[in-house]
Each structure stands twice: as C-alpha cells, then as structure tokens.
Amino acid sequence: MVKQEVIQWRFVWKTQRPLLLIPIMLWLVVILAGSSSQQLAKDLAVFLLYPSLAFPVVGLMSSIGSAYQKELWITLPVSPWRAGAVRPLLMSLLYAGLFTSVLHRYYTPAQVAGGCISVLMYMLLIALITTLFKNSAFGLCGGLIFLFFGLFTGGSGQGPLYLMQWYRQVTGLPSDVYLLEQGVFCLVALFGTVQLIRFRERFHLLKD
C-alpha cells in the first residue's frame, strides 16, 4: 500500500508539477509583499493565493477529470478510499497549512482556524465536483464560481457554507457554526467522492 501511494504521488508530481507549484509561487509573492505592505499581502492572499489552491486538486484528480481517460479510469482497479479520501485530504491539509502560514501573520487565531477549515472545504468541494462530472474543467470552474459568488455577495444563499466568513464576516450565525458546518461538509464531500469512485462505472452525468 505504501509503495503504491509513493508511486502515485511521484506520478502526480511528474505529470502535474506546474499545477502543484502555482500556489507555492503565489505564496512566495504574498510573503514578499508582506515585507512592504500588510494590506497588500492580505489582499493577495485572499484574491490570488486562495483561488489558486484549486489547481493542485485538479492536478491530483486529473486521471478522473480527463476527457481522454474516461474509459481507462472506469476500468482501472482503484481503491476508492485512497483515491477519493486519503489523497484529496492529504493534499488539502498540505496546502491549507501553506495558506494558514500566511494568515497567522495578519489575523486572529479564530480567523486562522476559519480560514483553514474554509480551504479544506474549498479543495474537497472541487474534488467532489470533478469526480461527479468526471471533468476537471467542471471541478475548477464550479469551485471558483462558488468561492467568488460568496465573496462578492456576502455568502448570499450559501448559509454556513460561505467560505469567506473568516475574512468578510456576515451576521446571522456565530463563527463556530460555520466551522462546524464546514467541517461536516468536508466529511460529506470525502464520503461522496469515495462513493462516486466506487460506483464510477454506473454513474455518468455527462454523456460523450
């Protein structure tokens, strides 16, 4: 199992390296910007670094979301729990750590915790959408639309799933409720992704 995982992660690194490196390069930009202007660094973290965290997930789920590998993906022997839960969760935790390493410089501990859970939900949502449609473009666009719609409308219609409560707080529900609900959604997204992979040969939303 460990050997297979190492091989899989090496494959992802070799084939999807640009997508994995985009957030890291933007993280460095935010760090450098913070040396001259804290407000600039905060804006870059929210409007540039945060959205870019979609790219590593798209890279990780590329074998699922590729239009050219659908038939191969359906027939491959794949562990649903490893492909649908373990790998997305590990990658989400890694990049959430990267993002919160910036947040802790400028925000309160409560905001940092909210930002961390928010990033986890954002990345796992993209993994779920990608698996649901077996299409990377749908996963990427769906995640970005959900993020920016909430950001520019104050979470209108999103309730406790509003991703930017830690940054642009709206009244109505305590922040603890957002943390709890988004944490539960992360678990639901992981379970849903696992089940979609398990029954991938039976379930097709997009027909060729």
Automatic annotation (TrEMBL):
The chain crosses the membrane at residues 20-41, 47-68, 89-106, 112-130, 137-157, 177-197. Keywords: Membrane, Transmembrane, Transmembrane helix. The keyword Membrane applies. It comes from the Bacteria. This is ABC-2 family transporter protein.
